[in-house]
From TrEMBL, chain B:
It is a multi-pass membrane protein. This is Cellulose synthase/poly-beta-1,6-N-acetylglucosamine synthase-like glycosyltransferase. GO terms for cellular component: membrane. It comes from the Bacteria. It comes from Streptomyces eurocidicus. The chain crosses the membrane at residues 6-27, 319-341, 353-374, 386-407.
Amino acid sequence: MYGKPALGTVLPMAGLTAAPEVLPGIPFARGLQEVAGAGFLLYVSTAIALLSIKLWFRLHGAGDRT
Amino acid sequence: MITELLLWAAISIIVIAGCYNATLFVLSRRRIRRTHGPRRPRLYVFLLACLNEERVLAESLARITGLPAGEFMALVIDDASDDGTAELARAAARATPGRVHLLQRHLPNARRGKGAALNAGIRHLRSSGLLDGHDPHDVIVCVVDADGRLDPHVVQAVDPYFDDPRTGGTQIGVRMYNRDKGLLARLQDMEFVIYGDIFQSARRYIGSVGMGGNGQFMRLAALDTLMGEDGTSPTGPWSDSLTEDLDLGVRLIAGGWTNQHCTTAAVSQQAVLDVRRLVRQRSRWFQGHLQSAGLVPLILREVPTRAAVDLLYHLSSPVLILLTSLLPLSFLVALGGTAVGSVQAGRPLISPLWVLGPYVLSFTAAYAYAFVYARRERGLGLLRAVLLSHVFVFYGYIWFAAGWWGLWRMLTGKRTWLKTART
């Protein structure tokens, strides 16, 4: 996708890991980042599952021409 | 503990995407050695699927008929246009006999998407006898958008790639011919140059080059292999996906063909000059990308491992875009909160790291993009390219809006789209 170049160049809230909770809006901002993190862990789990299936196909010589 | 894990997982999205982009940048800088077979004369057929394209078609046809190439023809597939598209094609056919042909489709069978129109074009080429006497291995079909302006040397640039009998398709670069018409057009030009010169170029090493729908050259024999084992598929090589080009590129790789990317020729198209229309266009692409998730089983079964890993990452990038979109929102909320907190505390609570950290994570890639774009656009200069690439980072946020819109349309079962209007 053409948007890929921009994917690694967003403004991440890296400082949130150490941000004080007392500031207004910080809990919400932290929550947004936690949702993104949870989604990414789910993404990684799915990716591992798919790569395992690919490995299985490769080991069993099903269709892989490498 | 779990909170910490989730926060760092979110940052990992950026780190992983950054590592991927950096790796492909390095790969894209390497020279590639191509396998050459014997030179053969080839027939080039340019397919133009047109729906109300009278504003731009004449210029595109003039470019094609003026190509300094040997055997070639253009087939205009008029998808039941309301305007003068068909008449323009007829006029071009009269002016250049044998070079331009017209296939007119009529409702209710027309206007069923670009893939359906292109499939009709392939069927017409077969049934009309235009390809009689030609070996499908030596017929190269090129999809060009109606506003596409091909470089004059495009056939000479692309033809050597097809000397390798394994080459199924070759994608050329894409530029915006109206890139001087404002910042939005310039950023789209930069986007396509970066995609072609970094990502597509690097994917030649991985074996996962994608097809782009405009300036997409394919060997007819390769398209034939996508039509079912008996070659009698009632539809044709293109699917009805909103991103039929992405779909076709993956199926070519799965079919054992090699896709190439040609960096020495380009097709220029019209940039969208309105943000709202641009977001709508990208939403359509995003939704098509989501539809392409159906290709995953095929990739797992048929595509070589290295290319498969890259294609899986590529096809899953919409998920990453949606997840990533939460991060700048989080940043803005936190920044606003900290500003309010600073006023309440009577002293600044924003540490310099708040500026430095996000800048390094967000804009490091901008320097690489500036380097690549400045090489293509010599008159721009490196300094202006660097400034432009910083704006380009923010331009990428368009995908966040487009992504959520595309997801919404997908979830609500909406699949029809109006094409992007020409200006």
